[in-house]
Every structure is written in structure tokens, then in C-alpha cells.
Amino acid sequence: MLACKRALSGTATSALRLLGSSHRAVQRSLSTQTHGEVRIAEILKEKFPLASSLKVVDISGGCGAMYEIHIESSEFTGKRVVQQHQLVNQALKEEIQGMHGLRIFTSTPTM
Q1: Which end of the chain has less Cβ packing within 10 Å, N or C?
Q2: What angle do helix axes 35-47 and 81-91 make, rounded to 10 degrees?
Q3: Is the whole-model pTM more than 0.90?
Q4: Distance, CA of 67 to CA of 64 (rounded, Å)
């Protein structure tokens, strides 16, 4: 995990490498999910039972240091984006402590 965190921090060159690995991570997630992806998805499904769409991707190359979450739920209706993100952060409070980073994308279902 330490080696993975080192790869995620640093210069712009490291960031460019991360973008490349993020693309590979998305391709990988189509065929199999990591333990961390499954665990985070289970927590979010429990916290947001009305979610109509949920996608969790380990974008750190599989080491669990950074995740991207896309969640669509009617539970976000009437809330500003920052409030929606706060709800997700609160749901993942324990898991976030061991992460390097988290990208959150929230939305409400379109009628």
C-alpha cells in the first residue's frame, strides 16, 4: 500500500501516469471487482437503498488507495452537490481513513 501511495503523490509526471492507470483500472473493473470496490459498494447500497445507479472503481491500479464513485439516488433530491458529497463521505467515514483520495460523482434520477 505504501508503494501505491507513493505512486499517487508527486509531480505532474506522476499525475499523468495515474491518468493512464485510471483508464486501465476502468477496463479491469468491467470483468472483476476488487475486495475494496465490493466493500464500498455494499456500504453505499446500505446507506442509500433508493440508489438507482452505483459504480465504484479502484483507480489506484487495484491497491485500494484511491476510488471513483458514481451514485445516482433520489435521496439527493433537493440537496446541493456539496451536501450530496458530504452524505457519501459520512457513509464511508471509516474507509476514507485508509485512502489516498476519493472522487465522488452524485446525481438524482431524471424524470
Answers
A1: C
A2: 120
A3: no
A4: 7
